[in-house]
Specification:
26 strands; globular; four-stranded antiparallel sheet; mainly beta; single chain
Length: 384
């Protein structure tokens, strides 16, 4: 077994690894050994790193040996990959598990002040519920100096479409917020509904945001016309991309540009859940077209771009989790945008909630109640 694989495959989960298993043939063959925990799909394999999580939502790596995992019920977990130790982080703001809400995304940044942790969660107040973002400094397994950076306005009683993914690029923090079930407000830039926000990492509004200085707009908004973006990542060219849930059909991958309107609910490739047209159709002047859309919906979730060489044929790919169609979605990047789509582990019957590329270059997914590490079959512990 290589040193890297031994380090990640902790004693807690060594019993779950399939040792000496011959590689499966056929890219459409998915095989699960429930007693051992690994799932094989062609020449790929998902190995369990941590099992028995409770509604995991997001993850953020501290380094190759440590990561943080959010659980929707409000718990932030610190996992040591080397030892398998799993500890609850103290000092986390109270998150309200309300419908689709709860403790959602986590993002880790190393600064002169130490290890800074950003969290998004559902905040409850007398007027209802909303998406809030905070940051704090991780001291051991406690979050200190917690500061509120952003609160989506207004609050609502609705239980869904909170967003909410986080992304840092340079000095900026990007935040996604869904339409909160009030679809028409995704076109109203005096509200945060259905928008991607851009703020400084300390919560200040950048002076060059597209709607700064307008009386009819909230200055944090970077783009709008989104339904419920639950994945966000930086493209290799430096641009921001989000994936978002459509209604019945019409999930989208969008390249985000400042001030742009992405159309919901005026244009969409989806329809009402009970059937019937939404809006005006699929296109309108002044509204952006998605880079890709899915019909039927796959229920997109966490998103990452992969540019490494660990997985043959994966270099330059967009990865998204799929909740409803239970797979890891991969779309090839081309010079013109997006190319061929691939669906991995699509018979696993697991809801893929988050996807991240770890510091070790491997892809990690939160699927069902387990954190998995994706490895090529030729790189598993079976190599010895």
């Amino acid at each position: 077994m290589s040193r890297l694989l031994f380090r990640v495959s902790s004693p807690l989960i060594l019993g779950f690894l399939l040792i000496g298993m011959t590689a499966c043939s056929g890219a459409d063959t998915v095989e699960a050994d429930q007693s051992k925990g690994a799932i094989v799909d062609g020449n790929l394999r998902m190995e369990p790193v941590q099992i028995d999580l409770e509604s995991p939502w997001g993850m953020g790596f501290i380094d190759e040996q440590q990561l943080l995992i959010t659980q929707q019920g409000g718990t932030l977990l610190h996992l040591s990959l080397a030892s398998g130790d799993l500890v609850t982080v103290e000092g986390v703001p109270e998150a309200t598990e309300h419908g689709q809400g709860g403790l959602m995304d986590v993002l880790v940044e190393h600064t002169d002040a130490g290890t800074v942790v950003y969290l998004s969660y559902t905040h409850a107040a007398d007027q209802g519920y909303t998406t809030r973002v905070v940051r704090g400094v991780l001291q051991g397994t406690r979050l200190e100096d917690v500061q509120v950076l952003f609160t989506a306005m207004p609050y609502y009683d609705t239980r869904y479409h909170f967003g909410s993914r986080l992304l840092i690029i340079d000095d900026y923090l990007f935040i996604t917020v869904g339409d909160r079930g009030n679809r028409d407000y995704a076109q109203d830039i005096s509200r945060h509904n259905g928008s991607v926000m851009r703020i400084h990492k300390d919560g200040r509004v950048p002076a060059d945001n597209p709607f700064v200085g307008r009386d009819d707009a909230l200055p944090e908004i970077w783009s709008y016309g989104h339904r419920n973006p639950q994945g966000m990542a930086r493209h290799p060219d430096g641009s921001v991309w989000v994936n978002e849930h459509g209604p019945k059909g019409g999930d989208e991958l969008n390249r985000i540009a400042p001030g742009n309107n992405y159309g919901w609910p005026i244009i969409t490739y989806g329809e009402e859940y009970r059937g019937g047209k939404i809006g005006e159709g699929t296109a309108r002047a002044g509204m952006e077209q998605p880079e890709k859309y899915y019909v039927p919906s796959i229920a997109t979730s966490g998103m990452a771009f992969y540019s490494g060489d660990v997985y043959p044929g994966w270099t330059d790919s967009a990865l998204s989790g799929a909740l409803a169609l239970t797979h890891l979605n991969r779309v090839e990047l081309t010079e013109d945008g997006l190319g061929k789509e691939h669906r991995h582990f699509d018979d696993s019957e697991l809801r893929f909630r988050d996807v991240r590329v770890g510091p070790d270059g491997y892809v990690y997914v939160l699927a069902g109640s387990t954190l998995y590490r994706v490895v090529p079959q030729s790189s598993t512990a079976a190599e010895g």
